[in-house]
């Protein structure tokens, strides 16, 4: 019996690997945003305009998802040119030396239907820290504008502490909050 079970596992494992889909974001229907609090009284939003996300999953509900994110830090945008230029400087993202920020997940845990705790390594500047965010699979539908191809809605929310990454150390929390709220929304298509 053990030999039959082992043989079945050997035959099924390659099928599982083959059945994984790779999903990439639709840049026209996706956004990677953040919010910080300024002077303790006002939330200031921003986003990154140049990034790529790849999600690999075999399960239709994304319960086994693996997420890879690469962000071009120079693409930070807050609607104020002087602020964006300052964020690109050595005071914050230091984009000349650190042109990319990355996130690579290594575990996922279901909280409830369609809601997951996603844990991975975030690398920002010269620091890598493990972070945990919430990932919500908002559903998968057929896109009538793409010949009925499947499109999945994914939302990721979470909080990081900028001081963990030595980001903007010259600006204390009363001026700019250490707490940075992350919110990413996207439509994903099979590559």
What does this 3D model show about the protein?
The mean pLDDT is 93. The relative contact order is 0.19. The chain is built from two helices and eleven strands; from the N terminus they run H-E-E-E-E-E-E-H-E-E-E-E-E. The protein has 191 residues and is mostly beta strands. The chain is 13% helix and 53% strand. It starts with a helix and ends with a strand. It has a single domain (21-190), classed as Lipid/polyisoprenoid-binding, YceI-like (Lipocalin, Beta Barrel), CATH 2.40.128.110.
List keywords for this structure.
mainly beta, globular, 13% helix, 191 residues, Lipocalin
Q: Which word captures the global form?
A: globular
The CATH architecture assignment turns out to be Beta Barrel
Helix-residue proportion: 10-25%
Number of helices: 2
Given helix and strand content, the structural type is: mainly beta
Proportion of β residues?
over 45%
């Amino acid at each position: 019996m053990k030999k039959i079970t082992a043989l079945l596992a050997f035959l099924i494992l390659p099928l599982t690997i083959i059945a994984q889909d790779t999903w990439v974001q639709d840049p026209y229907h996706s956004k990677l945003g953040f919010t910080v609090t300024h002077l303790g009284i006002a939330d200031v939003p921003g986003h990154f305009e140049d990034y790529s996300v790849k999600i690999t999953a075999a399960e239709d509900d994304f319960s086994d998802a693996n997420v890879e994110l690469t962000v071009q830090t120079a693409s930070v945008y807050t609607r104020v040119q002087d602020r964006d230029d300052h964020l690109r400087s050595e005071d914050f993202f230091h984009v000349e030396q650190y042109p990319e920020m990355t996130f690579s997940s290594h575990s996922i845990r279901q909280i409830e239907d369609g809601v997951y705790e996603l844990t991975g390594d975030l690398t920002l500047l010269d620091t890598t820290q493990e972070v945990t965010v919430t990932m919500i699979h908002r559903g998968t539908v057929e896109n009538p504008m793409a010949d009925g191809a499947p499109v999945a809605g994914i939302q990721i929310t979470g909080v990081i502490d900028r001081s963990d990454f030595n980001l903007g150390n010259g600006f204390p929390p009363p001026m700019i909050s250490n707490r940075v709220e992350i919110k990413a929304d996207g439509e994903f298509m099979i590559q």
